[in-house]
Amino acid sequence: MEELKTVRDVKNFKVQEGRVFNSATHEEIIKGATSDLYFVRTRELLSHAGRENTPVVAEIFTTRSGILCGTEEAVRLLQGKKVSLWAVPEGEEIKAKEVVMRIDGPYDEFAMYETALLGILASSSGWATAAWECKKAAGQKPVYCFGARHLHPAVAPVMERASIIGGADNCSCILGAKLLGREPIGTVPHAAVLIMGDTVKTALLYDQVMPEGSPRIILVDTFKDEAEETLRVAEALGDRLDGVRLDTPGERGGVTQGLVQEIRARLDQKGFHKVKIFVSGGVNPERIAALSAAGADAFGVGSYISSAHPIDMTMDLKVIDGRPLAKRGRIPGITPNPRLVRYY
Fold it and tell me: Are 217 and 186 within 8 A, CB to CB?
């Protein structure tokens, strides 16, 4: 697909009529339609001066520490361009101001993609870092990402994939999991229980319909007291019950340490020691630590990951025509980083 090279190209670029979604297609990203306009102006100016293919070295550095994610997409975006590229691999912990990517080649080969490259790395790294924080709080206990509902569907799989890169054990978004060769996780929402009219009826139906190997984890906060529903479900399913899920809304106080402690105690008193307690709803690292201490066994995290602040990335030209050169405030020349891996 022909890239946008001039202001006239931008003027003539038309949005397809009748498109279903406002999100950019892969083709539009490659064309440069998600780039900032000033890169097109720069491209046109340099072309007019015969300087568009000036050899440069560009570096991308991060503003704060966290977990790097988005490297693979960034690498694929520039695949086939006449550049050499080095980057820190996905999933690595990075420090503030660390150079995470270096690009060496004619400026016009990659100039249009600065916006996309920075956005890919910034958003994905923010989500991965939030998941990493949750996983650190949970220790050996599973953390699952349930954040897809908080984002536009075009980027939700990117977020959920990034959460796994950051340390989440799995995610609920189908495409997010499939991108990493995994199967998504999840049971049923409150809607199923409401339509069935009873938690135990829903549990029995779930056990009957779902294939063997699907964990029998049942929501117990739809109609009655959570502890009461937990015991009703445990007695109905017996050894086939793997766990109960607490998702008590904030209007009723949310899931508290006391609630988790009570349910754990009541399950143990009745001999249901193997039944796990799964917690979701407003979960963050602080709550994970507290609820884990109270007896929770696994956690579903939504908005804490999906609403994570991006880790801002900055691209600077550091070498031009073989000569170390940079804007004021930056040190000219290549910044050494032995962690950078050459991709091409």
Answer: no
SS3 310: coil
Write down all domains in the chain, each with its CATH number in brackets. Answer: 1-52 (no CATH), 126-306 (3.20.20.70)
In sequence order, the β-bridge partners of residue 278 are 245, 298
The two counts, helices (H) then strands (E), for the chain are 14, 14
pLDDT for 50-73, tens place per residue?
A: 999 999 999 999 999 999 999 999
75 contacts: CB under 8 Å, gap ≥ 6: 85, 87, 343, 344
Residue 114 has a CB neighbour count (10 Å cut-off) of 20
CA distance 142 to 138: 7
Burial 224-244, CB ≥16 within 10 A → b, else e: eebbebbbbbbebbeeebbbb
Query: In what helix (H) or strand (E) does residue 104 lie, and over which residues does it extend?
Result: strand 99-106
Q: How far apart are CA 300 and CA 170, in angstroms?
A: 10
What kind and span of H or E run contains 74? helix 71-77
284 close to 134: Cβ distance less than 8 angstroms: yes
Taking CA atoms, 23 is separated from 20, 155, 183, 244, 341, in Å, by: 9, 9, 25, 37, 31
Task: List, for residues 93-139, the tens digit of each pLDDT value.
Answer: 999 999 999 999 999 999 999 999 999 999 999 999 999 999 999 99
- The answer on pLDDT for 262 being more than 90 is yes
Instruction: Report pLDDT digits (tens) over 326-340.
Output: 999 999 999 999 999
